[in-house]
Amino acid sequence: MGNTGYKQKLYFGDETTYGTEVIVDQPIGLVQSVTPTEKNNLLKIRTLGGSRDYSNIVPGKFEVSGSFEYYLQGAAFLRMVIGEDTASTATIDSGPKTYYTGTTLSYLHIMGSAASPNADDFPSFTLEFADDEGDETKNIIRTYSGCRVNNTTISGTVDAPVKIAVDWIGQKVSVSSASATSVSEATVDPYVFYQGQVYVSADTADSTTVIDDGDRVCLLSGFDFTINNNLEASWYISGTCDSTQNIRALKNLIPKGRDYSASLQLDFSNKAMYQKFLGSTSATSPESTLTSYTAVIDLIRSGNIGTPAMTDDWMRIVMGNVKFDTNDISGAPEDIVSQKLGVFVESAKIYVVDADTDYTA
Hints:
17-stranded antiparallel β-sheet; 2 helices
């Protein structure tokens, strides 16, 4: 009998030094799928004086990458996406600050508030993908180290939990048939569609802003927000000067310019969002300059943003200097008229209030 998916597990651990494997100690969320890809990049060689077949097949550079999808419970892994959690001091990645003091403490995490870390300091993680069947003859435990997040999409749709899709690149992999590492799972429910609210406002917003109801995007059926770190991997002749690295593995994994994008899907009810696409709230045709807006996605399990309380448990994604890039208002005889807007985002911050004192452990 083949191995079964429900016995598989996916956990991660924060690396203090890039590429140095650590013991995984954090759950990612309610993982729905995992697709790692490893490539030997074989070099196939022919030669004069040989036959029509290859004369040699030798291994080339070893590449590790993959993707996974999960339902959003906690936000610790999002630090790997943005690159820092900076709320307590001006020092990059200094961690959260106390949000509310009561019987229990809650903490405010701000990701995207500081300059992005230098390439060497951008967070990396070890990823353990375990298929633990309780039998070492069937187990396969793959541990990927030197991993960084390349592309991530946070999406919400009706009748589903909020989902995060991650594409990552790793440095190397090790394999064993031991038991999976024991990690405590999160116990909170995932964020779901009816806990979400989306706003488009002419005003700025942060973790304390109470946004006017008039800026709410109504009849919304779906949203997504994408962050792309545009990672670039490097290999070198003569392998490596670092004895801890595999000779065929990548040597550097550099985050380049960061890109953001978003989209909103709604049932069309009036021309308000179309006018914003054209350039302003009063536009009647395409304007020569486009008004910048702030787009906000609120996900609230409990509490009210702007009124701190001990039970607060929420996430706010603030997209700054937003302009609408594409607009699609469709029509069909038996369908509700829908509108889809593509959004260009200049900058973004993610605010989270929870009980987690440290996203690195």
